[in-house]
Amino acid sequence: MKNILIFGDSLTAGYGLPASQAYPNLIQERLQQEGFKEYKVIGAGLSGDTTSGGIYRIERWLQEPVTIFILALGANDGLRGIPARETSHNLQAIIDKVRNRYPEVKVILSGMEIPDIVPGRYAAEFRKLFRELALKNNVHFIPFLLEGVVGNRHLNLPDGVHPNAEGQKVLAQHTWVVLKELLQ
């Protein structure tokens, strides 16, 4: 069995939904449909988690071998206004821990963005940090996991922040487009 570890926050956990509707489970279903039965998706989403929390949390998810690692953290850093430099440093530390344990692992980084309504340079710096990390680490990249979902009330729960079941399908599709290139 080849493990695909999706490590993230409430978006990965499928906040407010049954686990079956969260995008890691939708990816698992797609793998089965497409005949990639040797892959097992492990959804390691924790609502509210930040990149600094992820550094401490990643170790216990590395007990089993990881073939493909999808890093989908950072949204909560953005919401809290954590400096982009700190978020970048934390994401790098997580990537390093995974690669140190499994040197052959294939990595996908899920980018996050903050709405441009946030004043100042922060939104641009935050967006840029994911692109720079992807290039620096030579990893596969999803430019914006919430593309087309953010701000669309038909794809979000009543809180306007977390994707509903239809929104989770969009997150699964964004992830699948990049993931399918790494499957053998």
UniProtKB/TrEMBL annotation:
InterPro entries tied to this protein: Ester_Hydrolysis_Enzymes, Lipase_GDSL_AS, SGNH_hydro, SGNH_hydro_sf
Annotated signal sequence range: none
Top-level lineage group: Bacteria
Organism: Pontibacter rugosus
Every SGNH hydrolase-type esterase domain range: 6-169
Lineage: Bacteria, Pseudomonadati, Bacteroidota, Cytophagia, Cytophagales
Protein name (record): Arylesterase
